[in-house]
Amino acid sequence: MTLREAQPGGAPSTALHTDRYELTMLDAALRDGTAHRRCVFELFGRRLPGGRRFGVVAGTGRLMSLLRDFRFGDDELRFLRDERVVDAETLRFLEGYRFSGTVTGYREGELYFPGSPVLTVEGTFAEAVILETLALSVLNHDSAVATAAARMSIAAGDRPLAEMGSRRAGEQSAVAAARAAYIAGFSATSNLEAGRTWGIPTMGTAAHAWTLLHETEEDAFRAQIATLGTGTTLLIDTYDIAAGVETAVRVGGTSLGGVRIDSGDLPTVAAAVRAQLDSLGATSTRITVTSDLDEHAIAALAASPVDAYGVGTQLVTGSGTPTAGMVYKLVARQDSAGAWVGVAKSSEDKGSRGGRKAAFRTLESGTATSELIAVSDGFEPVDSPAAHPGARALHVRLAERGDIDPAAEGHAGVEAARAHHRLVRGELPVHALGLSRSEPAIPTVYVEAAG
Amino acid sequence: MTLREAQPGGAPSTALHTDRYELTMLDAALRDGTAHRRCVFELFGRRLPGGRRFGVVAGTGRLMSLLRDFRFGDDELRFLRDERVVDAETLRFLEGYRFSGTVTGYREGELYFPGSPVLTVEGTFAEAVILETLALSVLNHDSAVATAAARMSIAAGDRPLAEMGSRRAGEQSAVAAARAAYIAGFSATSNLEAGRTWGIPTMGTAAHAWTLLHETEEDAFRAQIATLGTGTTLLIDTYDIAAGVETAVRVGGTSLGGVRIDSGDLPTVAAAVRAQLDSLGATSTRITVTSDLDEHAIAALAASPVDAYGVGTQLVTGSGTPTAGMVYKLVARQDSAGAWVGVAKSSEDKGSRGGRKAAFRTLESGTATSELIAVSDGFEPVDSPAAHPGARALHVRLAERGDIDPAAEGHAGVEAARAHHRLVRGELPVHALGLSRSEPAIPTVYVEAAG
């Protein structure tokens, strides 16, 4: 069996989505024997950047699939050898590398707060340290987008939101962003790859180029309706909006599905378009707006006659917070005698809290009241749910001794995350729904593990 | 030959990195016959977001490679059929799709300004309209990062900059970000995949986890030096910085390569560490700083005894401007009689300028004075360089009748872009080098094409 065949399905290896220092540490650790010490690494955020009142965990399902492809094949090994990143012994270790540890973490779609142990990786130092970059890349990006999406979803209320930001994000991040937005409450995406890969509903009708391609706006509208039917949405702002609306209803009739507005002062324009549509008898024609929206602009349109929102740039860039800023830290390890010790760095501005953790959401009458984190300085025991009656245990097992639970993966994982997010967002206290910069909606409370 | 075999080298198709409305428009255009009208689409930015004084084009080489893989194979066609995105005739068109048009554009690494026609795609409406999302995703992301990187590079002067932000960007965007940063003046990256894929030098030694894995900081330093030699860089801020420096020099000797500081008030800490290193005789030991740097923090360290910078979050997120915000617009097309006409939408806040364009950078004594854009309302002629003596023509041919020029691709393309960027950055007027929000450094001047 060649190394290439060792990669199931021929999926590209994700193993070099790694910062060089992880392999340098591995190299040195194999030499001094510390590589085989069992360790607990924890992925968490020190704070909620951007004055967010809560965060939304996203990316877990993607990460678990990418972890399956974290294998060092011929190409990866050749690169590491040619670049002299590691020595021959380390190359042999990487050749046989399979993650054999345990991963626990928050369900995808779950809320998180400062200090929440969103992901916990337990294994040898060697196998766990090299996952830092991949785990952070996925969770930091996807959670930042999901958090922004949840805020937009709150602002939009019952009106549907479509994700249309692919053009303002790297081509692969765009697909992940569509997925994160759907988990956090969006109902569709313009991105076809997100439709194929993750089963997300796709939408879209026409751009300004469609109108400009034709001699007249009327020609363009007629041609679109000929293909898509009168239920379609016509883009009416290429030339003059009032003329566009008049033409749209003349061509599409009073049962025209919708019109889209992509420019101008939206509250003013939406009101004028609604009045014009109604005066023309097109009272059921829906208005979609899509111009530079963020959660604040959406909130400002709450009283406007808008039926649906399309959100692009601000969604995929996290609405001012493009990364969740989470970190991946060693929090516990075995010492030379095999005993567990909690460890933490003590930098003033970037300190961390050592020890293995269990996490619970305490609730009163169905409303979240705190993020309860039970810390164990040694390794076992950590608190079981029984220790905190009425609280919800936040960790689920994602991989056990290297065996990845497929529940978080694929289309089913996305739908489960979306459903879970809807559920837990309903537990937020009312003040969590505000959009201005503020403190986290619930306090993070640390307790010593009761065992 | 199956469709899958039609994909050379088995590279994954990029064809669904597309917004649904592009295929909806194609579907309607094939039906009404406008699909075969020849068109010119232009990719440009209306402004430089974030108060940037110049932009840096990046992503061109990546885009041309991705364009090679823009093919609709069995899987893509099945998805489009199952989702009823397009009809059977359109599926047949997509099955045979090969871009057969012409692409001209700015060299990768070139500067750009508001209105610069960074990329021009000429072909039938059908073949050109469906490239919108892919082209924008790549160029908007990569150019935003390159522009931030250039500002950081200006702030750093002769001191080297390393890109270390992979963990704060989606896992694939991280690789593209490392590439964009290298083009715009960074000297290395921590990202191993960027090393393999693009030939960028990689760097990195150890994280705090390395120190925490060991019983003492001294154990960790000794083990690192045993593997990497005394030329290595030791991370000294896990516990107490002064103690860390003392231990580092005791273990590594006065010829220790370097120390890294990742926390604290960097000007204060760097000065103290330099004084301590000098007092211990380690006068050639270099200081690298890596904590939350952006171009402003780097500039503020200009007088500090810092030898190298590592930049993460702010680099990969475009330092407050995570997307370049460029758009892809139809600017000229044939009419039903085959005559060329310039077209433009007229929205007040998002108007565009119709007509095919040629672009020139005018220079006086080697310093850029304007972005000269010659507009032709018809199709031919556009200005040749001879029409503007002393100015540099900014467009190069990237693909001719579907045949992609490989010059921009691969490792060689990256090195060429880096060299070109260095050259053209040297032409910027002095006031372009300021970091505060301002107007574009040179004006964009439109002239009618002289023919």
UniProtKB/TrEMBL annotation, chains A, B:
Transferase listed as a keyword = yes
Among Pfam families, the record links this protein to: NAPRTase, NAPRTase_N
Q: Which terms in the Gene Ontology molecular function aspect does this entry carry? A: glycosyltransferase activity; nicotinate phosphoribosyltransferase activity
Q: One biological process GO term for this chain?
A: NAD+ biosynthetic process via the salvage pathway
- What's the EC number here? 6.3.4.21
Describe the location of the Nicotinate phosphoribosyltransferase N-terminal domain by residue ranges.
16-140
Catalytic reaction list = 5-phospho-alpha-D-ribose 1-diphosphate + nicotinate + ATP + H2O = nicotinate beta-D-ribonucleotide + ADP + phosphate + diphosphate
**GO cellular component entries:** cytosol
Post-translational modification note: Transiently phosphorylated on a His residue during the reaction cycle. Phosphorylation strongly increases the affinity for substrates and increases the rate of nicotinate D-ribonucleotide production. Dephosphorylation regenerates the low-affinity form of the enzyme, leading to product release.
Pathway field of the UniProt record reads: Cofactor biosynthesis; NAD(+) biosynthesis; nicotinate D-ribonucleotide from nicotinate: step 1/1
Q: Which InterPro entries match?
A: Aldolase_TIM (IPR013785), N/Namide_PRibTrfase (IPR041525), NAPRTase_N (IPR040727), Nic_PRibTrfase-Fam (IPR007229), Nic_PRibTrfase_pncB (IPR006405), Nicotinate_pribotase-like_C (IPR036068)
Which positions fall inside the Nicotinate/nicotinamide phosphoribosyltransferase domain?
161-330
Which keywords belong to this entry? Glycosyltransferase, Ligase, Phosphoprotein, Pyridine nucleotide biosynthesis, Transferase
Q: Which family would the database say this protein is a member of?
A: Belongs to the NAPRTase family.
Per its database record, what is this protein's job? Catalyzes the first step in the biosynthesis of NAD from nicotinic acid, the ATP-dependent synthesis of beta-nicotinate D-ribonucleotide from nicotinate and 5-phospho-D-ribose 1-phosphate.
Q: What is this protein called?
A: Nicotinate phosphoribosyltransferase
